[in-house]
Amino acid sequence: MGSVGAEDDGSAGPVRNRNRAVASEVNDDGFDDETTGYQQPLEIRRKSDRRFYVFACAVLASLNTVLLGYDVGVMSGAIIFIQEDLKITEVQTEVLVGCLSVVSLFGSLAGGRTSDIIGRKWTMALGAIVFQVGVAAMTFADSFQALMIGRLLTGVGIGIGGVITSVYIAEISPSIRRGSLTSFPEIFVNIGILLGYVSNYAFSGLSVHINWRVMLGVGMLPSALIGFALFVIPESPRWLVMQNRVDEARSVLFKTNGDESEVEERLEKYN
């Protein structure tokens, strides 16, 4: 029995030494602390959530430029049926199609000042509302004059919302992703043009009195989504600082950035 006990004691020594070596390796890798093991994946998850949040805000804000693209694309096909249904002249057709660029310029000039007064987010909302009213007027128009009123309103709405979209995205984006995110409005313009062409094709088979109205009316869907976006996207931190709401601005920047040094640096610049 004594010899067995001696053998047990002798074999237990190397086992204990090996356990100490393994424990030492674990300690050297920094995973001995249970809290640290949870903190690392938690931080990774937070960074991923911030990236997704900023991406979602940029996408939702860029819906304003979908309105421009859709209007340009859909009118290229709808105007054919408008001419046939309302019997408008070639000159009236040219004025109806071409006035959008001129009118949206005035909307852009108004949008910059408006955004300083009511905020970037609500300026985009205002642009979407004006656009919807214009689209509704065009959809139910029964004369060239009614079409022109609707067209003027859509141009103003596009100008108001479009001019502030890139500004808003730049102000909420972290510096490392600002370049890629501010390209979204341009991408979404082209998506809107494509959707306009798809709408032309999809509804061209309807009667002449109905098809162009449906084509134009579908343009209200992106602007309706902007209404939903208002409950998701935050206000611009720069505008919040302009209103002396620094704590709110800091909170927004932490949601979209997370880098404390960059947050404080940007707040200092805004001041």
Name the average pLDDT.
Answer: 84
- Supply Rg: 29 Å
Query: Helical amount among residues, as a percent range?
Result: over 70%
Percentage of residues in strands: under 5%
Oligomer: single chain
Low-confidence stretches: 1-13, 17-35
Task: Describe the sheet with the most strands.
Answer: none
Structural class call reads mainly alpha
Taken from the alpha-carbon principal axes, the silhouette is elongated
Helix segment tally: 13
The helix-strand sequence is HHHHHHHHHHHHH
The N- and C-terminal alpha carbons lie at a distance of: 83 Å
Describe the structure.
The protein has 271 residues and is an all-alpha fold. 85% of the residues lie in helices and 0% in strands. It is built from 13 helices and no strands. Helix 4 runs antiparallel to helix 5 (120-139) and helix 5 (120-139) packs antiparallel against helix 9 (208-217). The radius of gyration is 29 Å and the shape is elongated. The model is unreliable at 1-13 and 17-35 (pLDDT under 50).
Structure keywords:
271 residues; mainly alpha; 13 helices
Concise summary:
It contains 13 helices and no strands. With 271 residues, it is mainly alpha-helical.
Give the SSE map.
Layout: H1 2-29, H2 34-61, H3 63-86, H4 90-118, H5 120-139, H6 144-172, H7 178-181, H8 184-203, H9 208-217, H10 220-229, H11 237-242, H12 246-256, H13 260-270
